[in-house]
Amino acid sequence: MLRAAASAAAAGALVTGCDPHRADDPGAVRPAGRPSASGAGHAPPAPVRAARPPTRVPGLPVQIENGPRNGRAVALTFHGRGDPKMATALLGEAERAGAKVTVLAVGDWLDEQPAMARRILDGGHELGNHTLHHRNICALPAAEAYAEISGCADRLRKLTGTIGSWFRPSQTRRATPLVTQLARKAGYPHVLSYDVDSLDANDPGAAAVQRTVLDSVGPGSVVSLHLGHAGTVAALPPILDGLRRRGLRAVTTTELVT
User: Fold this and answer.
1) N or C: which end of the chain has fewer CB within 10 A?
2) Distance between CA atoms of 215 and 232, rounded to whole angstroms?
3) Residue 48: its pLDDT value, please?
4) What is the mean pLDDT of residues 13-38?
5) Across residues 12-23, what is the average pLDDT?
6) What's one Pfam family here (predicted)?
7) What is the full DSSP assignment across the chain?
8) What confidence score (pLDDT) does residue 11 get?
9) Residue-wise pLDDT tens digits, 118-165
């Protein structure tokens, strides 16, 4: 059923990915508002779960590729863009397995799908910044690169109360010194990279995504994956099963490094 649902959702999925060759429990913030004069028939607005502020870990490098290798945790990180139904299905699979993930959202996706910020946080997951338009940030002039970082940070602040836990640059695995400096200026002490690339943005199919991840993952790994790809949705349950058989558990990146 999962494969069928993922295939159906794929028909409307946006093209996503960071391949340059292809083009823990934060508090609640109540939205402002007044109850009706009568107070009848109007439930109070539900609290909006606030995103964690940027994670700062003294002693760790500015650019983080992995967590401690002597533990039993890994971080599954998702570049946030694509069909919201597919994203919701993937988050549901993670939650059924007791896993927590980190979603680095693209700002224009949040403009189109603002409810996804709340969905991610309400599931106990972590939310961060993956630039405003998903451009090749390391090739941009400083002012444009900063606008990409700060623009997404503004969306996150408006939707969640903070600029999110992490910044990950778009269309690159590692940030240049300039992009790292601009991220710090925008309020992010660290840049989040990764040590395992699932290659799922190339849509190789669920079996290939599963194999690529499980062949490379180990304690402390930060795995790069993407929302908006049917193969990734289908691959997630066997990936989580494979981690569990090795005694590993999927946690948010902040939990991994702290």
Assistant:
1) N
2) 16
3) 52
4) 38
5) 42
6) Polysacc_deac_1
7) -HHHHHHHHHTTPPP----TT------EEPPP----SS--S-PPPPPEEPPPPPP--TTS-SEE-B--TTSSEEEEEEEE-S-HHHHHHHHHHHHHTT---EEEE-HHHHHH-THHHHHHHHTT-EEEE--SS---GGGS-HHHHHHHHHHHHHHHHHHHSS--S-B--TT-SS--HHHHHHHHHHT-S-EE--SEE--GGG---HHHHHHHHHHH--TTBEEEEESS-HHHHHHHHHHHHHHHHTT-EEE-HHHHH-
8) 39
9) 999 999 999 999 999 999 999 999 999 999 999 999 999 999 999 999
The pLDDT score that the predictor gives to residue 50 is: 77
242's tokens: 């494979």
CA 113 to chain centre: 14
Among residues 67, 123, 122, the alpha carbon closest in space to that of 95 is found at 123
Contact 129, 166 (CB under 8 A): yes
Q: Are 235 and 255 in contact (CB under 8 A)?
A: no
Has residue 40 got a pLDDT over 50? no
State which amino acid sits at residue 18: C
Encoded amino acid at 123, one letter: G
Exposed, middle or buried by CB within 10 Å (0-12, 13-18, 19+), for 44? exposed
Residues 73/249, Cβ–Cβ less than 8 Å: yes
Percent of the chain whose predicted confidence (pLDDT) is above 90: 80
User: Between the CA of residue 151 and those of 87, 175, 192, what are the distances in Å?
Assistant: 22, 18, 18
Q: Would you tell me how many other CB atoms lie within 10 Å of the CB of residue 8? A: 13
